[in-house]
Design a protein that fits this description.
With about 450 residues, the chain is an alpha+beta fold. The protein has two domains: about 70-310, Alpha-Beta Complex (Sulfite Oxidase, Chain A, domain 2), CATH 3.90.420.10; about 335-445, Immunoglobulin-like, CATH 2.60.40. About 15% of the residues lie in helices and about 25% in strands. It is built from nine helices and 21 strands. The chain has helices at about 10-30, 40-50, 55, 70-75, 160-165, 180-185, 210-220, 255, 310, and strands at about 95-100, 105, 140-145, 155, 165-175, 200-210, 225-230, 250, 260-265, 270, 280, 295-300, 335-340, 345, 350-360, 365-370, 380, 380-385, 390-400, 405-415, 440-445. The strands form five sheets. A five-stranded mixed sheet has the order 4-3-12-7-8. The chain is globular. The two termini are about 35 Å apart. The model is unreliable at about 1-15 and about 55-85 (pLDDT under 50). The site of the ligand Nc1nc2c(c(=O)[nH]1)N[C@H]1C(S)=C(S)[C@@H](COP(=O)(O)O)O[C@H]1N2 has 19 residues, from loops.
């Protein structure tokens, strides 16, 4: 039996909310930094966490401002303007992509027959601004901050990183807002953000060095708590004109030391410009925003850090959540997609092999069930990959539509934590982590 649990993994969330409360308490005591975050946003989070009244907080200032950023800004001068109008460098053929503002969504039908990994030229692109074209030979990574031994910064060239032990692994990168438009089309709810269908995900083989290895070489201090990678792309300015600075989101040290990579290869080739050339962070299983592209510097901090990407964005807000939102999002949720266009036409009274993919940020995929009659009857799909953490599985199910007409296809995955995709996802205003079973219309003709 599927169960309709909350859309985030509970054990994970309780760990993260405890961490978040501790961080907020430290901010209250002047021991955490929140550069570029509005004071009222932190106050709202404190209130939601039950940590403070307005009176208690009055007079509490932000801690001392951050030391000036290291040479990353000068290095960004090597940037050449991207050629493509929406700021994406690679070609975006209509057969493979739907463009949405500065972003390009992969069409699932373009993955049929392509193999386990998303071919790099079909991999979705999510850019807050536009792709910078960086010169790998001039690029350096600066690791700095008071969480390093004696606060001494360290610099690495690409060759330095390549001389360190390399790790290769398969993992998906998925936007937290993937599936967002289904809150509206399937549940009749309004949400803000890019109206993705299901194609804001791709899986690739990544090669790079463990972030933990680099942090240790830089001299990780015993007080370090948060790690803040920052991109070399332009400052992100919101629609209402607020400059939020460069794209950055703190990672707790425990995750940074666990399975995070500084990746310089994707599917056996150097990272292409749109996916972070020359080096991106890869945070397996977590929301795509954690995997900072074009990383130029990483602050290692002895104080908890905030950025707009873990205060205003990438928390769940809405009627089902505390007023200041949930804890910051960490792992992705459970989803499935058919490799078919919306309203695909299939010959009636003929045999078809339906194919698709399922994935989960919480565990491995345990099983996938498919329905071709709108959810009345279900049968088990055949899996074509060995399920692995932070990766997707391909599956198939055979189907012969008896007569011409409209049909609704459904695919429902269950992961090794025991969660099954629910019938509906609890609403959140920014439309993150949609995990409900998607009703995919097709026509037999
Ligand atoms: N520097 C930087 N890193 C970034 C972003 C960005 O705009 N700038 N977008 C993030 C988001 S929201 C997602 S979902 C992933 C998308 O990775 P991709 O474009 O390689 O598919 O990159 C993340 N890393
Ligand atoms: Mo994203």
């Amino acid at each position: 039996m599927p169960h309709n649990g909350p859309s985030t993994d509970e054990s994970n969330e309780s760990g993260e909310s405890a961490y978040d409360r501790r961080r907020l308490r430290q901010w209250l005591a002047g021991e955490a930094r929140a550069d570029g975050v509005e004071r009222r946003d932190l106050l709202r989070l404190l209130a939601a966490a039950g940590l403070a009244t307005t009176a208690t907080v009055a007079g509490t200032g932000f801690a001392a401002p951050a030391p000036a950023a290291p040479a990353a800004a000068e290095r960004a001068e090597d940037t050449v303007a991207a050629a493509a109008a929406p700021g994406i460098v690679k070609p975006l053929p209509e057969a493979w992509f739907t463009t949405r503002g500065t972003n390009a969504e992969t069409r699932f039908e373009a993955l049929a027959g392509t193999g386990h990994h998303t071919p790099t030229d079909r991999f979705f692109v999510r850019n807050h601004t536009s792709t910078p074209v960086l010169d790998a030979s001039a690029w350096t990574l600066t690791v700095w901050g008071d969480g390093l031994v004696r606060g001494r910064a360290a610099e690495f060239t690409l060759d330095d990183l390549k001389r360190l032990p390399a790790t290769t692994r398969s993992a998906f990168v998925e936007c937290a807002g993937n599936g967002r438009s289904l809150f509206t089309t399937q549940q009749g709810q309004s949400v803000s953000g890019t109206a993705w269908t299901l194609g804001a995900i791709g899986a690739a083989r990544w090669r790079g060095v463990r972030l933990g290895e680099v942090l240790r070489r830089a001299g990780l201090g015993r007080d370090a708590v948060d790690v803040l990678p920052r991109g070399l792309d332009a400052d992100y300015v919101t629609a209402d004109g607020t400059n939020l600075g460069r794209v950055r989101r703190p990672l707790p040290l425990a995750k940074a030391l666990d399975d995070v990579l500084l990746a310089y290869e994707m599917n056996g080739e150097p990272l292409p410009p749109d996916h972070g050339h020359p080096v991106r962070v890869l945070v397996p299983s977590w929301t795509g925003i954690a995997s900072i592209k074009w990383v130029g510097d990483i602050e290692v901090s002895a104080q908890p850090l905030y950025s707009p990407w873990n205060t205003d964005f990438y928390r769940l807000f809405g009627a089902a959540y505390p007023e200041g939102g949930s804890a910051p999002l960490t792992r992705q949720t459970l989803k499935s997609a058919f490799e078919l266009p919306w309203n695909a036409s299939l010959a009636a009274a003929a045999d078809h092999r339906l194919t698709g993919r399922s994935w989960s940020g919480a565990g491995r995929i345990a099983r996938v069930d498919v329905s071709t009659d709108g959810g009345t009857t279900w049968r088990r799909a055949r899996l074509h990959d060995t399920p692995r953490r932070a990766d997707w599985v391909r599956w198939s199910a055979d189907w012969r539509p008896a007569a011409p007409g409209a049909y609704t296809l459904l695919a429902r995955a269950t992961d090794t934590t025991g969660r099954t995709q629910p019938r509906t996802t609890v609403h959140n205003t920014q439309g993150y982590l949609f995990d409900a079973v998607v009703r995919h219309p097709v026509q037999a003709v």
